[in-house]
Amino acid sequence: MDPIGSILRKEMTSVFNFIIEHQILEIYTVNRKRYGSPKINMALKEYGTNISLKRTQRIMRKLGIRSIIIKKYRPTSSKYKVAEKVNVIKRNFSTTSLSNGLAHKKNNWIFYVKIYGYSIDLTGS
Predict the structure, then answer these.
(1) For residue 29, is pLDDT > 70?
(2) Strands (E) located in the chain
(3) What's the pLDDT at 31?
(4) For the chain, what is the radius of gyration of the CA atoms?
(5) 98, 91, 90: which is closest to 118 by C-alpha?
(6) What stretch of H or E contains 7?
């Protein structure tokens, strides 16, 4: 292989990497640091720069940038039963028969629930 050709190839690659790094940083900052490597790679393709996802990941790792990730809340199952708490508010939700109702006052609204067999009536005033 020609030594001058390999030197030129290395120089061209480093210049191309420099341009790609600036494009990646621009996409990253414009999108408020939310974009990860897949979305940045798609945005680069829209710009006309077609590089692989692995190369995008490698350059992002070199630049030290990562997407801001907000993980979804996933409740875990509890092995232990929750202990019954003390009734501090002292509300009584028990009824003596099905025709009795429950009332609750919140923000100047009174909610009254009346249970008829298996159907529930909810009125608010």
Answers:
(1) yes
(2) 101-106, 109-116, 119-124
(3) 94
(4) 31
(5) 98
(6) helix 3-30
Q: In a 3-state reduction of DSSP, which class is residue 38? A: helix
The structure tokens listed for 54 are 């692995």
Cα–Cα distance, 74 to 100 (Å, whole number): 38
Alpha helix ranges (H) inside 31-85: 37-47, 53-63
pTM of this structure: 0.55
d(CA 82, CA 26): 50
Question: Is 70 exceeded by the pLDDT of residue 15?
Answer: yes
The residue type of 103 is A
Distance CA 56, CA 21 (A): 9
Q: Can you tell me the distance from the alpha carbon of 101 to that of 95, in angstroms, rounded to the nearest whole number? A: 7
What pLDDT score does 79 carry? 78
Question: Which tens digits make up the pLDDT trace of 51-109?
Answer: 999 999 999 999 999 999 888 888 777 777 777 778 777 776 665 555 555 555 666 66
d(CA 24, CA 124): 55
Place of tokens 């990860």: 36
